[in-house]
Specification:
The protein is α+β, with helices and mostly antiparallel strands. The chain is 40% helix and 18% strand. It folds into three domains: 61 residues, MutS, DNA mismatch repair protein, domain I (3-Layer(aba) Sandwich), CATH 3.40.1170; 159 residues, Alpha-Beta Plaits, CATH 3.30.70.270; 137 residues, 2-Layer Sandwich (Dna Ligase, domain 1), CATH 3.30.1490.
Length: 411
């Protein structure tokens, strides 16, 4: 949302939403849209009347722009610490041990101003002894302008006051099921949970809930690397128009496979199994239904893109049916383990050392020149348009990643 407004200042104070792939559902809302009661995830067709009535501006997802702007924000944060952990595209944690405690709030206020001046994106920062408390503080900083973008929780009184007015369902790590269990036990605020005994948290919510309880009580015990390490990685898409060409379907699956493999390497993991699937639309009763679905058991767990592509393409080609109208496809990586726990196969004929050197070289090229700088033959090329496959009628220009779409200013 903020990324779009950076280049469209006329959108400030106007209701704006960003839509999911194929412009299907609302995945991001401005405060003005939230005030209208429009929920996250609602399909666009269900709010057509509200869009017309309130003049809501709709954008298709622009992942290239959002990713680039995120990188700019994170690079500024990295300048201010030697210990930085990025949690998501728009969240990260920095260590401030090198800053005197009485100077940390003013220091973070300067960082907030620096990020806004450097990128145009407003951010909020929370300062606290634990990551969960820092996220609580950050939400207060975002909600109340009097904090000047940075809120600090550095003593017991501030902690209790902050948690007393914080709904339990808004606490980081408390999902829908955990919230239901806690509300069933009469707990509606973060403070009520934090004031319970440790045994209560352990028995009701097990390890995850216990870590959250400790964090709410000021103990820094959550490892971001463990949270970020996914146990299943999926890339899939419903296409705007059905695909009948095998080459086009291969290119889409190839792109999904490469993205999954890149995520594996980022979290220093490998996968032991992969599911390849594609299907026709189950809502079309006028066509013959067909589904591709094969689970591939890999001989040796891997995160190598070339190897995963080889198995994915073979699985797809075994089941591809000419003339079928494929509306959806995807890749799912499962049985994910840390890369340092791989058990080698004595009869493995693949030169994995060579594969590793090649993959490292490709990753370095992607880091330097962009992930579409060089692709495998079974992927779509950087010059191929997605418009024929994906619906993105309201996508903003690639202001920062395509020289032909740079913002033009007339004076």
């Amino acid at each position: 949302m903020s990324c779009e407004r950076v280049f469209r200042p006329d959108l400030w104070n106007r209701p704006v939403v960003v839509l999911s792939g194929n412009d299907g559902c609302v995945v991001s809302r401005s405060n003005e849209v939230k005030a209208l009661g429009i929920k996250m995830g609602v399909p666009l067709y269900q709010i057509r009347d509200e869009v017309e009535r309130y003049g809501i501006v709709c954008f298709s997802s622009n992942f290239s722009l959002y990713g680039d702007m995120s990188s700019r924000v994170m690079s500024i944060l990295r300048r201010h610490t030697n210990r930085f952990e990025q949690y998501s595209i728009d969240e990260g944690f920095i260590n401030l041990d090198h800053i005197p405690s009485d100077e940390r709030k003013s220091y973070c206020e300067r960082i907030v101003r620096e990020i806004y001046q450097g990128t145009g994106i407003p951010v909020s920062m929370g300062i606290a002894p634990s990551k969960t408390l820092a996220k609580v503080a950050s939400k207060y900083a975002k909600k109340y302008k009097g904090y000047h973008g940075a809120c600090i929780i550095d003593d017991t009184d501030k902690r209790r006051k902050a948690l007393e007015n914080f709904e339990i369902g808004d606490v980081w790590g408390i999902g829908r099921q955990a919230k239901a269990k806690l509300t069933g036990a009469g707990i509606t605020t973060a403070l009520q949970f934090a004031d319970r005994r440790e045994e209560f948290a352990r028995n009701l919510l097990h390890k995850t809930g216990l870590l959250t309880w400790r964090e709410l009580n000021g103990e820094d015990c959550i490892d971001i690397r463990e949270i970020a390490r996914k146990q299943t990685i999926t890339r899939s898409r419903t296409f705007a128009t059905a695909i009948t060409d095998r080459t086009v379907l291969e290119q889409q699956l190839g792109d999904f496979c490469e993205a999954c493999a890149r995520q594996l390497r980022m979290q220093q993991s490998v996968c032991q199994r992969m599911v390849v699937y594609a299907s026709t639309s189950r809502f079309r009763t006028d066509i013959e239904q067909h589904q591709i679905a094969e689970e591939v058991v890999l001989p040796v767990a891997t995160a190598n893109t070339a190897e995963l592509l080889q198995y994915a393409m073979a699985a797809m080609r075994r089941h591809f049916r000419p003339g079928a109208l494929y509306k959806r496809a995807g890749i799912v990586l499962t049985h994910i383990i840390p890369q340092n726990t791989v058990i080698q196969d004595l009869f493995d004929e693949r030169d994995r050392e060579k594969d590793s050197r090649l993959q490292t070289a490709l990753d370095r090229m992607h880091d330097k020149f962009g992930k579409r700088a060089i692709v495998f033959g079974t992927q779509s090329s950087a010059s191929q348009s997605e418009q024929s496959v994906y619906k993105s009628e309201n996508r903003s220009p690639l202001y920062t990643t395509d020289i032909s779409q740079l913002l033009q200013i007339r004076v």
